[in-house]
Structure formats: structure tokens, C-alpha cells
Amino acid sequence: MTLGMTFGVGLQGLAGNLVTIEVDIADGLPAYTLLGLPDASLSESRDRVRSALTNSNEIWPNRKVTVSLSPAWLPKSGPSFDLAIAVALLIANQTLPNCEGTVFLGELSLDGKVRSVRGVLPALLAAAKAGITRAVVPTANLAEAKLMVDLDIIPMQSLAEVLRWLRTGERAEAEPLDIQCESDDSFLDFSDVAGQPRARLAAEIAATGGHHLLLIGPPGAGKTMIAQRLPTILPKLSIAQALEVTAVHSIAGTLGNRAPQSLLAPFVAPHHTTTRVAMVGGGSHVIRPGASSLAHNGVLFIDEAPECAAGILDSLRQPLESGEITIARSIGNLTFPAQFLLVLAANPCPCGKFSGRGRNCTCTSQQVRRYLGKLSGPLLDRIDLRVIVDPVSRIEMAQNELGESSAVIRARVIAAREIAAKRFASESWKLNSQIPSRALRTTYQPERAAMNFLHDELDRETITARGLHKVIRTAWTLADLHRHEIATLADVKQAYTLRDGVEL
Ligand SMILES: Nc1ncnc2c1ncn2[C@@H]1O[C@H](COP(=O)(O)OP(=O)(O)O)[C@@H](O)[C@H]1O
Ligand SMILES: [Mg+2]
Ligand SMILES: [Zn+2]
After folding, report:
1. How close is the Cα of 12 to the center of ligand 2, in Å?
2. Which of 225, 303, 396 is the pocket-test mutation for ligand 1 (most atoms within 8 Å of CB)?
3. What is the DSSP letter of 415?
4. Which pTM was predicted?
5. Which H or E run contains 456?
6. Ligand nearest to the CA of 225
7. Spatial contact of 21 and 8, defined as CB atoms under 8 Å apart
8. Which residue, 2, 6, 4, is CA-closest to 27?
9. Which range, 28-37, 174-183, 365-374, has the best average confidence (pLDDT)?
């Protein structure tokens, strides 16, 4: 009896467990048994491993082969164990030396190529935690793997290459892949946006205080443009935040849309026809994070939000409340992070032509009300800013002067966030949008004159109690931007007008 052993990683959501792969080759009738809760795609590894080995001129042992993945209780899925199984098999067959302290990640194609796999970064995080010092990864996943600076990362393109390295120590020159941390990989800039002073200000306030934002306006007014540029005025991600973002995108297999080393807050814009699973995660076979997790630490933008199917927007309630999303499954719950800035865009009416000037719109006033009414409900409770975006005028478009650049706005956002962070040093929250209602009535009341103003509006029923809290939260952000120590009457009045009187 001969035994071969290697390491792989099993992922459950973002959490990984080091998996020991043992292969035993014994005399007896040719057979192949895979133990340790494999799913369908992992069970198919036998055929991939066998073809890959034969096509790499290795010998497939025509004996009794037992492959055991432990811990046995841990459900294991996906093709990422192929490479580790192939190597353990050759060690057991005594055609490879032992290889300790190394984790192997990669799917094998039938001709012996090492294919990219999902979840390399979270897998390596788990491996490093378990004391692994070296990792063989598919070359296609190198950029992501290199984020693990403390691991010796060995990128490989084929099984033959892996075997040559294990036998001789030879390895191809490290890829000349440039993975310097790009701090700014967006070519979008707020200076592209002409006019729209109110919407620009609303974006700045949203970025500063973490206030969710609703933009209402006709097609072509620049709503999408403004939303897309929010990441360029949000603070850059910390390394820890960037790793979280990359890990989620790695599991979802969407790193194609995003550089793994990017420090730019992500921007994710699911279409309004999207499904609940695509929005918040799930799946029947392989569980994937949804748009709300892909937008973690960044912006989730939903264009034409009133067109969303019933229940889709409501599915965002859990992540909006807790900053994460839990997906229940029979073998245990999975949790993905989902802390995002929500931006909704809506046409003012079904035909989209309604504007402050009301021209060309063919909708009845009832239709207009009903359309935006689709957004009502608990979701809107969480949106502090509602801004009407009128079409940009010809004069504004013709202006030669560019608008303020993202860099200038971002500097103000960061400075104001620092002031808020100091104020909230002993609180459990960091942003003005997160001030709990109770604290708004006690510690974080605006100045007296401002409260009088708000109470008058309450008496006149021009604002609801709920709206009042939103105004105060926004007013604190304005105070931070204006360097006021307390939210003043002017801050509160400005916050009040920023709601555009849109009481949905
Ligand atoms: N304020 C603006 N400044 C500059 N260009 C604009 C502006 N608004 C719209 N545009 C132009 O119109 C196009 C469509 O704008 P978009 O942001 O998609 O509008 P909306 O999302 O409101 O329908 C943009 O790509 C841009 O070329
Ligand atoms: Mg648009
Ligand atoms: Zn209309």
C-alpha cells in the first residue's frame, strides 16, 4: 500500500477550510473511489484527472485507487481539487516526491492544462491561516493570488509544468504580470458632468455621510453618469476592504470586470429585470454572492428602479439593515458581506418625459403618482436623499468650463468623514446615515433654532416624523462639509430642500 498526500481548500461562502487529500493505491481490481462529501462536479474529477494525466504522459495506476478528502464532514464542491488530487495520486504511485506545506488549487482540462478557478483569494486566506506557506495556483488567477504577500505563490499553466517543478525544481520565469496596487483605475470623472449642481451636491453628500440616494429625472439627464462616478469621490478602499471586495468577486467569478488589486470602491448595476438570486445571492447548485455583495464597500445602482419586479427591491432590506446577507441552505447557512451605498434612479413617470416643466408627458397625474409609488415602503425609509434631476440645458452643455473634478470632491468627502469619525469615536457607527433614531432625539439634535424650524414643519404637516430624521442625518453631513460643530438652521434648511419635497 502506498499513500500520497496534498492540500486543497474547501470554501463555504467566503470561509475556507484546509482540506487534506489522501490517495491510497492498493492491489486489487482497478477501481476509483472518492470519499468525503464530494458534489457532482468534484466527483467528475476522476475523468478530468485521468485524461489530464494520460495526456501529460503520466501513468494512470490500473489498480484500486481510493481518494479521501478530509475533514470528511465538510461538504466539498467544485473542480478546484483536480490538481491536488492528481499530484497526490502520483505521489502515491511513487512517481513524484512528497510535497509538504503546499496547497494546490486548479481545475484540470482533459489535455492537462491548469484552468482558473473561483475563490482563489479566500482559499489562500484560509490556507495561510492554517499554516500553509506555498501555493500552486492557475496562472490565470495570479493577480488575485499575489495579493497574499506572505505566501510563496507558484503560478502554473499545465499539469506537466507542475510535475516538472516538483521533480526538478525548475519553473518557468515568473509571469511579468504587473500587479502594483492601482489606486485609481477609473477614467470616469465628475468633471465630465455638466451642470446639475443639485445632483452633484447630492452625490457628494451621499458619499460623505453614506446616505442612500434616489435620483428622479427623465432619460438622458445624467443620472447614470452621476451614479457611475460615485466611486471616484468615495474614499479609496483600505487594503483590508479591497481584499474583502476581491474575495467576493473571486467567488462570484466576476474578477474579469474588476482588477483584483483595485482600491476603487466597486460599482455594480444590476438590470431592473434581475432576479432575487442575482440581487442578493443564492443558487441551487453552487451558491454565489449577488449584486448586493459584489457592491460591498461600494455602490449598488439600480436604474429604472420602479420597473423592478415585486420583491426584488425588498430583498435588499436585510443587507441594508445588517450589512450582510445570509443564505440558508440545507447544509448550513452562508453569509456574505453586503454593505453598500444604494443609488436608485427613476423616471418621473411611465413615459419618462415628465419634468419640472411638464412638457411632452402624456401620463395622467394619477399614473405619475402610481409609478413612483411603486418605490414606497420600507426600502424608501432607508433613503435619505431624493433629488429631481432636470434635463441639462443647452447652455450648460455648451459651457467650456469643466465641472469640479472627482479628486477635489473626494478630498472634501474624506475631510468631512474624518470629522464625523471623531464625533462618533465612542459610538458603534461611523457615518451620519447610521445615527439611530433615538440618538437623533438626544445626543445628536441640531441646534435649537433648527429644531424649532423642524417642529414647525411637523406642525404644518409638511414633513413626517420619519422625514424629520432623514433631514437631521443629512444636516449633520452638511455640517461636517461646512465645518460646523453642530447641525445649524442653515444645514437643516438645506437638507430639507434637498429632499425636493418628494414625499413618497
Ligand atoms: N449633465 C450632463 N453632462 C454631460 N453629459 C450628459 C449629462 N447628462 C447626460 N449627458 C449625456 O447623455 C448621456 C446619457 O446620460 P445618462 O447618464 O445615461 O442619463 P440618464 O441615466 O439620466 O438617462 C451621457 O452618456 C452623456 O453623454
Ligand atoms: Mg440611465
Ligand atoms: Zn409621462
Report:
1. 36
2. 225
3. H
4. 0.84
5. helix 448-459
6. 1
7. yes
8. 2
9. 28-37
Nearest ligand (C-alpha, residue 192): 1
The answer to whether residue 503 scores a pLDDT higher than 70 is no
Spacing, Cα 354 to ligand 3 middle (Å):
5
Q: What three-state secondary structure class fits 196?
A: coil
Cβ contact 159:86 at 8 Å: yes
- From the list 120, 58, 132, the residue with the least C-alpha distance to 89 is 58
Q: Which of 108, 18, 1 has its CA nearest to residue 65?
A: 1
pLDDT band at 360 (very low <50, low <70, confident <90, very high): confident
Instruction: Let me know: does 485 contact 479? Beta carbons within 8 Å.
Output: yes
Closest CA to 341 of 248, 206, 437, 214: 206
User: Any idea what DSSP says for residue 405?
Assistant: P
Please state the rounded mean pLDDT for residues 333-342.
Answer: 90
- N-terminal to C-terminal alpha carbon distance within the chain: 73
Beta strands in 233-347 (DSSP E): 267-268, 298-302, 324-327, 334-337, 340-346
Task: Return the residue matching grid coordinates 462639509.
Answer: 481
236 exposed, middle or buried (CB, 10 Å; 0-12, 13-18, 19+)? Answer: middle
Q: At what angle do helices 448-459 and 489-497 cross, to 10 degrees?
A: 40
AA identity, residue 388:
I
Cα–ligand 1 centroid distance for 301 (angstroms): 15
Rounded Cα distance, 483 and 497, in Å: 20
For the ranges 75-89, 247-261, 314-328, 435-449, the lowest mean pLDDT is seen at 247-261
- Give residues with Cβ within 8 angstroms of 206, minimum separation 6: 212, 213, 230, 341, 343, 385
Please list the residues that pair with 64 across neighbouring strands: 26, 31
Kindly give the distance from the C-alpha atom of residue 372 to the centroid of ligand 3, in angstroms, as a whole number.
12
Cis peptide before 71 (omega within 30 of 0): yes
Cell of 502: 418628494
Residue ranges and CATH numbers for the domains of the chain are 2-168 (3.30.230.10), 190-404 (3.40.50.300), 435-504 (no CATH)
| Residue 381 CA to ligand 2 centre (angstroms) | 23
**Ligand number with the minimum distance to the CA of 403:** 1
- Pocket-forming residues, ligand 1, beta carbon under 6 Å: 193-196, 217, 219-225, 392
